[in-house]
Amino acid sequence: MSDKVTIGTAVLDRLHRLGVRHIFGIPGDYVLSLYQLIESSPIKHIGTTREDCAELADRRADAAERYAALVRGQLGLVGEDPAREGLLRTPQRVADAIGAARRSFDFIVVDTHPSYGSLNMAIFDRADRILLPVTPDLPALRAAVQLRDVAAELGIRDRISMVVNRANSGVSVSDMERTVGIPALALIRSGGLLFVRAANEGRTVIDRFPKEKVSADFDLLADRLLPITRATAGETKPAVKSLFGRKELAARA
User: Fold this and answer.
1) What is the C-alpha end-to-end distance of the chain, expressed in Å?
2) Residue 112 lies in a domain
3) What is the pLDDT along the chain (253 residues), one digit of tens a residue?
4) Which end of the chain is more exposed for a tag (fewer CB within 10 A), N or C?
5) Domain count for the chain
């Protein structure tokens, strides 16, 4: 960057100090002088064709860097040096693998831990549907209300669906819906020891106890997430669109 300090060079220097490494944008008459400064700065400019494309590219790049930062932290926790030559590219490889998985699979299910850390924020940003399991007790309801408010600030509230776990074993479902402000997508009754017995055998409760009512609850939840109309003999099987909007699958009769 030039030794001459201008408003443009000062802004770019500050952005670089804050960790900005890429700028996505569209060249135009009024910003060409700024683009010349970007070309001579440590920040890389990546051209796009439209404003919304620039926004999408920026969000994806930011999420990938968050994944990479998480992996670097995990390597440090297990006593590794993330800067070691053999591991230097590992965080970026993991981030790239996650991005590639979205293009290679029809569905990706992520079970997140309860936090608002950078990893979860990146997952929320990429998610098409967010299931919020809530048990009928006050601590769980308070946490659900907090997530609802955070989701509203992030602009993702419309992606959240509440699933009532241990339904009707405490606070009523109607009271839960009024408190959280989100209608229940599905109700999962308490399975008691069925879950324990299935887990001890390394199996799911649906696989181990397919005729139990709690298994039917999960089947209903799956149908509501991905409605499938069973085709009768001789009928054309309807197409079922992926939740991620990338492929269409033929429903299995």
Assistant:
1) 64
2) no
3) 456 788 888 888 888 888 888 788 776 666 777 878 888 888 888 777 667 777 777 776 766 666 676 676 766 766 667 666 666 555 556 556 666 777 778 787 878 777 776 667 777 877 888 999 999 988 889 989 999 998 998 889 999 999 999 987 878 899 999 999 999 999 999 888 898 899 888 899 999 999 999 999 999 999 988 865 444 445 544 444 444 444 444 333 3
4) C
5) 1
- The number of residues in the chain equals 253
Three-state secondary structure string covering the chain: CCCCCCHHHHHHHHHHHCCCCEEEECCCHHHHHHHHHHHCCCCEEEECCCHHHHHHHHHHHHHHHHHHHHHHHHHHHCCCCCCCCCCCCHHHHHHHHHHHHHHHCCCCCCCCCCCCCHHHHHHHHHCCCEEEEECCCHHHHHHHHHHHHHHHHHCCHHHEEEEEECCCCCCCHHHHHHHHCCCEEEEECCCCHHHHHHHHCCCCHHHHCCCCHHHHHHHHHHHHHCCCCCCCCCCCCCEEECCCCCCEEECCC
Identify the bridge partners of residue 25 per DSSP, sorted by sequence position: 47
Cα gap 180→144, rounded to integer Å: 6
Has residue 16 been placed in a domain? Answer: yes
Nearest partner of 64 among 84, 94, 89, 44, judged by Cα:
94
Domain-embedded: residue 7 = yes
Can you give the residue range of the structural domain that contains 34? 1-47
Q: Are β-strands 44-47 and 130-134 bridged in parallel, bridged antiparallel, or unpaired?
A: unpaired
Q: Which two tokens stand for residue 126?
A: 């990429």
Rounded to whole angstroms, the Cα distance separating 99 from 163 reads 28
